[in-house]
Amino acid sequence: MGAARRTQAERRAATTRKLVDATIATLVELGYGGTTVQEVCARAGVSQGGLFRHFATVEQLVASAGEDIGRRLVQRYRRELAVRGRRDDPMVALRLLRAASRSPLAQAWFELVVASRTQAGLRRALEPVFRRHYAEIVALARELWPAVALRLGPAFDVVVDTVVAAFDGESVRRFVVQAPALEAKRLVLLADAMQRATTHRSP
Description:
- By secondary structure, this protein is mainly alpha-helical.
- The chain folds into two domains: 1-55, Arc Repressor Mutant, subunit A, CATH 1.10.10; 58-199.
- Helix 1 packs across helix 4.
- The chain is 79% helix and 0% strand.
- The chain has ten helices and no strands.
- The protein has helices at residues 8-30, 37-44, 48-54, 58-84, 90-101, 104-116, 120-144, 146-152, 155-173, 180-199.
- The chain is elongated, with a radius of gyration of 20 Å.
- The longest helix has 27 residues, at 58-84.
């Protein structure tokens, strides 16, 4: 017997997946400026009418792509840290975070961040996506290092967000100017600060 025919919901999910994947690939290769409806549809093998049957607006499509990018970045970090098996080593955690911030997926994320500066509709669509992503990063950090989170209290969230912001900014700047010696020193500085926080004991 041949394969069972897919349901309408399954076909819709498959088409949505193709459109989101095509959007992310285009963001990585061509940047936000090159992420046109025509380019995305050509890559996905979906008509423009088909795209707008699944997403009411381009901003909605891009927001879905942003949601997917954020989820993949967090999943990748969790997976890579599990492979390393050294959750107690700040340098391992920082190196993986830096690698994630320099990955093609992160580059697509930064394309959306920069484009949102001048496009109000895009910014409105992406703001809740971005907020959820960074909140998920902090939640993951609390899950991975509960003792440190308890010890630092509210400051823990600030520390995590500051480290993420440092690597995000570093990654964007590297598109134009790279400073490997400075970047190496920054990593050591951050690892040292994290180590002190990890080993600190309240009197």
